[in-house]
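ok so heres the complex, two chains, lmk if somethin looks off
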Amino acid sequence: MPSLLSIRGLEVAYGAVQVLFGVNLEVQTGEIVAIIGPNGAGKSTVIKAVVGLAAVQQGQIVFDGREIANLPAHIMPALGIGYVPQGRIVFAQMTVTDNLEMGAFLQKDSVKRRQAVQQVFEQFPRLYERRHQPAGKLSGGEQQMLAIGRALMMNPRLVILDEPSLGLSPKYVDVIFDQLLALKQQGRTLLMVEQNAARALELSDRGYALELGHNRFADSGEKLLANPDVRRMYLGGA
Amino acid sequence: MELLDPAILLQLLISGLLAGALYALLACGLNLVFGVMRVINLAHAELMLVGAFSAYLLYRFFGLHPVFSLVIVVPAVFFFGYYLQRVLIERVVGQPLLSSLLATYGVSIILVNIGLLLFSADYKSVPAMQGSILFGEIAISKPRAVAGLISVALTLAIYFFLERAHLGKAVRAVAEQPQVAAICGIDVRRIRMLTFGMAAAMAAAAGVMLAMIYSFSPISGADFIQKSFAIIIIGGMGNFAGALYGGLLLGVVESYVAGFSSSQWAEAVAYLLLVAVLLIRPTGLKGTAYVK
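and the predicted structre for the whole thing:
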């Protein structure tokens, strides 16, 4: 079966600084795939290139049989890709409901938009309680739920998450990983970048470890967790 | 004149609110462009004069009342602004402020000189409406009443579009987080074209209304752009509702100052108000700190 997402030989540079040197990555439908690696490995750049937020110099990005490298970001929801940006960026001055509605900007039917908002509220009851509040007033964990909910609004076939647990309190790290597990159980396909490598690999079917813009290890989540080299280099040695 | 006569106080309040509504319509467009793309449009008052001179031509040659010429002028200037954004302004979005100041100042110079070529520097007016409406002891000039009410209606229409409409919310989303808005499926460039078109149309509508009340020449823009800047700083940079409040506030204060002292003082009051607001609340009435 062809992969849902297939990245081959991806090269990205920011100005004169090359960040990725031929990265390969596959995501199958129904999988959770994690990209791990130290700061500067180029983890976030891989997914930014996929969603059109970083310019691709070389290589292919094929989603569902279609070459998508260097397509503009605003067509991603129409292709079936949802994106949760790093730093739980929400529209701070807009209400929780309006934030979610923006996630379905391309859905012109307001009844269907409202149904999608209700589905997110069922998944995240906390957001329903705060639906009339400006998103800027939410706690960090609630904002991350909102950012995830917003990415789900168009019922995407692939959800891409950039550091979903970064900067959250330990309690909310648990909450967010529980939510990711719930998404997995619903059969969603996830690709995430996560600095909390151990927890990400526990949850993931497969993982890719990057080092300075190159693929270093690629294996199932369990095998990566058991690999002494990976433990030493990416999981703090223990 | 007995100044503390309640009828006179009410008269000054009403004429101030009507004048302020026109200021608000003008300043809201300027603030909308700043809020969405961090561009200060120095040609905003010239877009207003495009509206005023269009109303003048349509009245002079076709006898069209300014209220009806709105139907032609507002859409026409909307499309002018829409494509001006695409051709020129889009290139300076996200660039250092100096780039957008120079680009829009260039547009302003071009429009002023086209105006001087076509109309000379002589003052024009559109005397389509005369007389006053009387409410007991209070008399309101008809053109001012009509201009003020139409300005309020247009400003509120745009406000509710931004607050309630799906597309209007997308404009606010782009103003807050353009990259995240894009990833939501919003074509950010198109939203900026829409925004500049709306702002230009608001300026032109203000120009049509202004033509009914004041005389104007191609170089009349300076007074209005200065007052508009004072208003958006008083109201809060980038905040649409702030420009509405700021405009109404300035209209009322100018009206009372003109009533109690002289219209020369009223001209200066915008800047006194500006200094006062900056001393007490540097972010403006409705503003939040500008974080880059």
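quick notes: Residues 107 and 113 of chain A are 6 Å apart (CA to CA). thats all i got rn
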